[in-house]
């Protein structure tokens, strides 16, 4: 007989707080997962540990550059 809302005085606040809490948790999880996969992708693409000579050898072996270009670049790298 209390209008059917007995005990629900702060219900609206906690409902909003719960929605904000779970939205924050899900956002944090999405950011962490995306960064994890982004790092794995970087490792596959270049790795960052190859020397210029190794990169040159790989490009020549893959047919990206001609023998003439390979020798010219190799000569330039050996001067440094």
TrEMBL record:
Give the lineage.
Bacteria, Deltaproteobacteria, Candidatus Zymogenia, Candidatus Zymogeniales, Candidatus Zymogenaceae
Query: Record's InterPro entries?
Result: SHOCT
Q: Does the keyword Membrane apply?
A: yes
Its recorded name reads: SHOCT domain-containing protein
Positions of the SHOCT domain: 52-75
The regions listed as transmembrane in this protein's record are 12-34
Q: Which organism is it from?
A: Candidatus Zymogenus saltonus
User: Which keywords label this protein?
Assistant: Membrane, Transmembrane, Transmembrane helix
Domain of life, per the record?
Bacteria
Transmembrane among keywords: yes
